[in-house]
Amino acid sequence: FGIPPAKQFTDYSLLSGGEKRLLNLLSVLMANPNFLVLDEPTNDLDIQTQLKLENFLENYKGCLLVVSHDRHFMDSVVSYLFVFQKDGGIKEFPGNYSDYLEYEKQHRKQSPEQKNIEKPVNAKPKNRDDKPKLSYRERIEKEEIEQRLADLGRARIEIEQRLNASDLDNDELNRISEEYKNILEETDLKEMRWLELSEKEG
């Protein structure tokens, strides 16, 4: 996990929050468990440590149960989701978070004929006076968000490759790490807005 020798003999009380979390996790992993429960494991970890943790868990042979708001981390390590809904229900989905977003996107793009098939026979007819669920401006915004998310995804992959390079000095590493953090934050905001618009679209 990239802990330098000079740090390995540091008193526990002098470690940062992220270093303590990492040390606690490593002490568990030393027992070679076949089942791990991780609650927000990437909190307080720097970008490089997050990537190393992701790489380790991608090759983990046991069962992994993760509670996390870090969608990029989940994309790397999970293969099945329990998605908490606004109504308090839990939706099961086989796949990672990006798979789930794509599924939701395709599901909402169903043709009217397909949606009619799913409606019960006694469904009430739609009121002709009902306004469109998304305004023209919101539909344009949704399309722009989808394009921006694609661009951010490509930029994230490129930066991850640069972070894995061994020839970076400290200044460049800090600059790239900050750029990576900004990309993740913008991606989270865009995805949240996309979900809001998708739910409104129905």
Automatic annotation (TrEMBL):
Extent of Basic and acidic residues compositional bias: 107-118, 126-135
Coiled-coil intervals: 142-190
Lineage of the organism: Bacteria, Pseudomonadati, Bacteroidota, Bacteroidia, Bacteroidales
Name under which the protein is recorded: ATP-binding cassette domain-containing protein
A molecular function (GO) term: DNA binding
Keywords associated with the record: ATP-binding, Coiled coil, Nucleotide-binding
One Pfam family this sequence matches: ABC_tran
Location of the ABC transporter domain: 12-43
Cited PANTHER family: ABC TRANSPORTER ATP-BINDING SUBUNIT, ABC TRANSPORTER DOMAIN-CONTAINING PROTEIN
Top-level taxon of the source organism: Bacteria
Ranges for region Disordered: 107-135
Residue intervals of the ABC transporter Uup C-terminal domain: 133-199
